[in-house]
Automatic annotation (TrEMBL):
SUPFAM superfamilies: SGNH hydrolase. Residues 3-163 form the SGNH hydrolase-type esterase domain. The lineage of its organism: Bacteria, Bacillati, Actinomycetota, Actinomycetes, Streptosporangiales. InterPro entries: SGNH_hydro, SGNH_hydro_sf. This is Lysophospholipase L1-like esterase. Gene3D superfamilies: SGNH hydrolase.
């Protein structure tokens, strides 16, 4: 399962079944359940008025526990202090662990297809800290170069090719490091 924002659920010409999450799941032979919505984050409820924690509660928590849950985001928490993002990420991860104690959790920080603004690193660090505090693996896509053709004209979201590159990165990270530590 994965919770995320527009990078995860799709945006522009990229539909949910063509996102990096769906492509990575197909490559790994996994069945994927996707939750979340465009514009959302750990703190930012976006236009759907639903944070990642609420997406977990409404879209995932009633399902059987997955082997792996990925939480991917932070891009939309730009107007939030890093300490607030850290607290929200920790609360979500605590809720997941209480609800599904044997599920492994991987957290992916903010994704930026072009050069990330300075504030994104503070949000990334807050999310990474929350993941470490809660025993979840953390994957950091910031600072990576995704190459030409990876960015839509909106200057924010990945193209189909960008999603393919993100999927390859995620698959390599999961294969190289595994799905993270066993739950406590």
């Amino acid at each position: 399962m994965i919770i995320g924002d527009s990078f995860t659920v799709g945006s522009g010409p990229v539909q949910r079944w063509d996102t990096y999450a769906a492509r990575a799941a197909r490559e790994l032979g996994w069945q994927l359940v996707t939750a979340g919505a465009a514009g959302t984050g750990f703190v930012n409820p976006g236009p759907v008025e639903r944070t990642f924690q609420r997406s977990f509660a409404e879209e995932l928590s009633w399902r059987p526990a997955p082997d792996l849950l990925i939480v991917s985001g932070g891009h939309n928490d730009r107007r939030t202090r890093p300490g607030t993002v850290n607290g929200a990420a920790r609360r979500l991860l605590e809720l997941v662990r209480a609800h599904w104690p044997r599920t492994r959790t991987v957290v992916i920080g903010p994704i930026w297809m072009a050069r990330a603004p300075r504030w994104a690193y503070g949000v990334r660090d807050a999310i990474a800290s929350a993941a470490a505090e809660e025993g979840a693996a953390f994957l950091d896509p910031l600072g990576r170069r995704w190459g030409r053709g990876a960015l839509l004209r909106d200057g924010v979201h990945p193209t189909h090719e960008g999603h393919l590159r993100l999927a390859r990165w995620l698959v390599a990270a999961l294969r190289g490091h595994g799905p993270g530590p066993a739950p406590r």
